């Protein structure tokens, strides 16, 4: 057959062409400029100020000059406060060459990170079992919270500075000007605002180092996320706050007397946030003098797990913690699957999200007078005694070419408009690619008079559909609604406007979207650390940025949002509250106090549940829901030191030379036995315990050291919550403390006693009759 060799030759030519194209593409990629971060560890000693900053920028430019041609040499950021390094536009070859420099720790592509109230703080107070009285310490206005996010809306009443004293003298920050943002936009409450925009050319070729160009743009929040988070953490008390009549009450932050400094690193939530800008914001915030940093930003669980020394959040947080700044981060919104938690470095306080005792319900009234309560935030004009509209299931309105499965899921383009227009549409949520908002937009575009969504997922976090009638029900109620549609010739319904339900039980519940542990970076540190309200949180919002404004209404100054982004500033506010009462406490002590006093019980006195109804584990909620009032007086704390974190890096396999650069400690050496992940669980003094592997016949011993921050001459007795098949023994069983700040060490020994494979959970609790110090554990049984 003469055609066969010809066919083989054509295939060979095609293969050679594909290889050539691939090689050309690879070569082009090597010469394409991208933003890279060059991380150089701790900065040299020698004070601060403009002179040192200029010297370090000059050194960075000189380093760049050794690799990059002069006409292509640009720095976008220079880091020189909490840590040293820079961001620059580089080719892959130039980045590789810089990574070999003796002063460089790591070089990595600038990653794109994502953005991850009237009732929540009252609910947390109620969970404590008592309310603050004259004996509770008053919060100080000297504590400063840095919010790294999308900026700030300074006119919000949550940032009113009435009655506030002078700005702390240690504050060294700026109030940067820009379009629609003046220096006068800052006040005694909002004391600082920075913006990180298009800074390409911050240091240009042959330019005077003194002539540093200011970034373009403005600190003003054009998204709303940053304003919402800042007011949740430290908003002033605003009486009568509400969202079009819902969630009425006094809005306030966790530390209403604290100061706010805003660092805008994100401009549009759909475009993400620059990792190099976030690093610069952390560097500036530490230098400015903040006490707490709140970061509701991070990677998603589907991203490649970064090395700790190429993760901008982990790097910046380490150096902030080194300098006494508490860094609080959101755990991510990729739950409820396991191993989805992000921002899990041990020096970060990682926060999961929960519900509070308030829910938003919209009732669905069928033509047969049956009523179903659904989850929603809508301002429908339909009423109980008003008009009923025809009810149609999506599969019944499918186009000729659309499969019934797509139409039943409100898939775009799957519905025949003439069969939907003027009716209330019913859809299901079995296709996770089509979000609730997309389904709502499909229904609205089809001319529907409303949408009933049958989907149990994320029901605890209702979406806001403004005037469009919408309600979400679970599968049981949904089955009854579908049976009704099939049982009558002319099914009808109405969707009523939302009402808020107060004192809702059970609460808290772990939010379905909240990311779960164990952490992908290391199973030997239990993550998330704890849980805070993150569902349907009312907080400040730029009125010009309202996505959904009900018909005939003006934009609101408040909005209701859900996410671990909302949980994070709750903990940042609680951390600032503790810092104001205990100025000497380190970030690790504050974290410990919040974790060991957290509750694993709901407002029914039962174990906290996950959104599925199952009892929540420590991989769902960490130590439990924060109780800031209890954390004021925790009794004992676990102070995780910088040395612990450096040892952690050793156990993870980093070399002494690298850790010396990171830490700035020229004398540091790794402990004997490193690297060994088991040593992380055994000896890093963390306020929780995670054993990554326990096998039969090989007991696993963990040591911890407790510090007394309570009364003198205290005796603590241990109690153990152990699951069946797991032997847990603590030695000694009593800890004696003769004075405040005294320490005592103990050992927890785990042994396989017939437990089933997989993770087993429990807790070790120390009590002196006044304090209860609970340390949760997770043990992976093999």
What does this structure look like?
- The structure is a single chain.
- This protein is an alpha/beta fold.
- The chain has 5 domains: about 1-30; about 30-110, Peptidase S8 propeptide/proteinase inhibitor I9 (Alpha-Beta Plaits, 2-Layer Sandwich), CATH 3.30.70; about 115-355 and about 510-630, Rossmann fold (3-Layer(aba) Sandwich), CATH 3.40.50; about 360-495, 3-Layer(bba) Sandwich (Glucose Oxidase, domain 1), CATH 3.50.30.30; about 635-640 and about 685-780, Immunoglobulin-like.
- Helices cover about 25% and strands about 25% of the residues.
- The strands form 9 sheets. Strands 16, 17, 18, 19, 20, 21, 22 and 23 form an 8-stranded mixed β-sheet that branches. The protein has a 7-stranded parallel β-sheet with strand order 7-10-6-12-14-15-25, with helices on both faces. A 5-stranded mixed β-sheet has the order 30-37-36-32-34.
- A hairpin with a 4-residue loop joins strand 36 and strand 37 (about 770-780).
- Helix 12 (about 565-580) packs across helix 13 (about 585-595) and helix 16 (about 640-650) packs antiparallel against helix 18 (about 675-685).
- The longest helix has 29 residues, at about 5-30.
Approximate strand percentage: 25-35%
Class by alpha and beta content: alpha/beta
Amino- and carboxy-terminal Cα gap: 61 Å
Question: How many domains in all?
Answer: 5
Q: Major β-sheet, in short?
A: 8 strands, mixed
- Alpha carbon gyration radius: 28 Å
Say which CATH homologous superfamily of the largest domain is assigned. Peptidase S8/S53 domain
- Report the helical percentage: 10-25%
- How would you sum up the global shape? globular
- Give the integer mean of the pLDDT values: 89
Low-confidence stretches: 1-11, 20-29, 130-137, 199-215
Look at the structure and give the CATH class of the largest domain. Alpha Beta
Report the CATH architecture of the largest domain: 3-Layer(aba) Sandwich
Number of DSSP helical runs = 18
**Total beta strand runs:** 37
Query: Which fold name is given in CATH as the topology of the largest domain?
Result: Rossmann fold
Domain Inhibitor I9: 35-115
Signal peptide: 1-28
Domain PA: 389-480
Active site: 149, 225, 565
């Amino acid at each position: 057959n003469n055609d066969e060799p010809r066919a083989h030759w054509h295939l060979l030519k095609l293969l050679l062409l594909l290889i050539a194209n691939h090689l050309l593409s690879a070569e082009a990629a090597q010469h394409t400029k991208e933003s890279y971060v060059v991380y150089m560890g701790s900065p040299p000693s020698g004070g601060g100020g403009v002179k040192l900053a200029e010297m370090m920028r000059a050194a960075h430019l000189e380093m760049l000059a050794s690799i990059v041609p002069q006409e292509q040499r640009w720095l976008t950021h220079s880091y020189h406060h909490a840590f040293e390094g820079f961001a620059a536009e580089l080719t892959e070859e130039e980045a590789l060459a810089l990574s070999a420099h003796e002063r460089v720790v790591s070089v990595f592509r600038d990653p794109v990170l994502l953005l991850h109230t009237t009732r929540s703080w009252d609910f947390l107070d109620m969970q404590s079992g008592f309310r603050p009285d004259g004996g509770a310490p008053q919060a100080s206005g000297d504590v400063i919270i840095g919010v790294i996010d999308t900026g700030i809306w300074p006119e919000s009443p949550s940032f009113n500075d009435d009655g506030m004293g002078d700005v702390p003298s240690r504050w060294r920050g700026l109030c940067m000007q820009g379009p629609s943002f003046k220096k006068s936009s800052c006040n005694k409450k909002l004391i600082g605002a920075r913006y990180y925009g298009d800074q390409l050319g911050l240091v240009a070729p042959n330019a005077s180092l003194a002539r540093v160009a200011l970034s373009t743009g403005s600190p003003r929040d054009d998204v709303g996320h940053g304003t919402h988070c800042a007011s949740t953490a430290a908003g002033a008390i605003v009486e009568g706050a509400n969202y079009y009549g819902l969630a009425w009450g006094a809005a306030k932050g966790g530390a209403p007397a604290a100061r706010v400094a805003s660092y805008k690193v994100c401009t549009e939530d759909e475009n993400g946030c620059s990792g190099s800008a976030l690093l610069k914001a952390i560097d500036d915030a530490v230098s400015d003098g903040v006490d707490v940093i709140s970061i509701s930003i991070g990677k998603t669980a589907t991203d490649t797990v970064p090395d700790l020394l190429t993760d901008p959040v982990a790097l910046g947080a380490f150096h902030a913690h080194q300098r006494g700044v508490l860094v609080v981060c959101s755990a991510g919104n990729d739950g409820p699957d396991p191993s989805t938690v992000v921002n899990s470095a041990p020096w970060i306080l990682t926060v999961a999200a929960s519900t509070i005792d308030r829910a938003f319900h919209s009732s669905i009234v069928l033509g047969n007078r049956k009523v179903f309560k659904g989850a929603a935030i809508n301002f429908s004009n339909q009423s109980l005694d008003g008009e009923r509209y025809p009810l149609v299931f999506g599969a019944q309105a499918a186009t000729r070419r659309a499969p019934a499965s797509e139409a039943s899921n409100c898939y775009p383009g799957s519905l025949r408009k003439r069969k939907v227009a003027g009716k209330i549409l019913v859809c299901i949520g079995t296709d996770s690619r089509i979000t609730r908002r997309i389904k709502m937009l499909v229904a609205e575009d089809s001319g529907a008079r409303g949408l009933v969504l049958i989907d149990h997922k994320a029901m605890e976090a209702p979406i806001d559909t403004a005037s469009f009638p919408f309600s979400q029900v679970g599968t049981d109620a949904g089955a009854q609604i579908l049976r009704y549609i099939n049982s009558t010739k002319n099914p009808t319904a109405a969707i009523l406007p939302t009402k808020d339900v107060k004192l809702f039980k059970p609460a808290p519940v772990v939010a379905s979207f909240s990311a779960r542990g164990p952490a992908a970076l290391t199973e030997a540190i239990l993550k998330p650390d704890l849980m805070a309200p993150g569902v349907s949180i009312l907080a400040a919002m730029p009125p010009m940025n309202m996505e959904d404004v009900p018909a005939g209404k003006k934009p609101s100054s408040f909005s209701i949002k859900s996410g671990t982004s909302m949980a994070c500033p709750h903990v940042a506010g609680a951390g600032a509250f503790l810092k104001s009462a205990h100025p000497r406490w380190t970030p690790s002590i504050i974290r410990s106090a919040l974790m060991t006093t957290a509750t694993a019980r709901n407002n029914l006195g039962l174990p906290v549940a996950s959104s599925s109804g199952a009892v929540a584990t420590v991989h769902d909620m960490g130590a439990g829901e924060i109780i800031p009032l209890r954390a004021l007086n925790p009794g004992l704390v676990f102070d995780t030191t910088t040395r612990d974190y450096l040892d952690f890096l050793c156990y993870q396999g980093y070399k002494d030379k690298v850790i010396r650069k990171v830490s700035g400690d020229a004398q540091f050496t790794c402990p004997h036995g490193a690297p060994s992940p088991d040593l992380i669980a055994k000896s890093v003094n963390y306020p929780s315990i995670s054993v990554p592997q326990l096998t039969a016949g090989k007991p696993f011993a963990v040591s911890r050291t407790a510090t007394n921050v309570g009364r003198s001459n205290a005796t603590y007795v241990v109690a153990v919550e152990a699951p069946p098949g797991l032997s847990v023994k603590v030695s000694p069983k009593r800890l004696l403390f003769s004075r405040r700040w005294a320490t005592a060490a103990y050992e927890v020994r785990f042994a396989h006693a017939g437990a089933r494979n997989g993770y087993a959970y429990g807790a070790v609790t120390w009590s002196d009759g006044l304090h209860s110090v609970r340390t949760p554990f997770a043990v992976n049984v093999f």
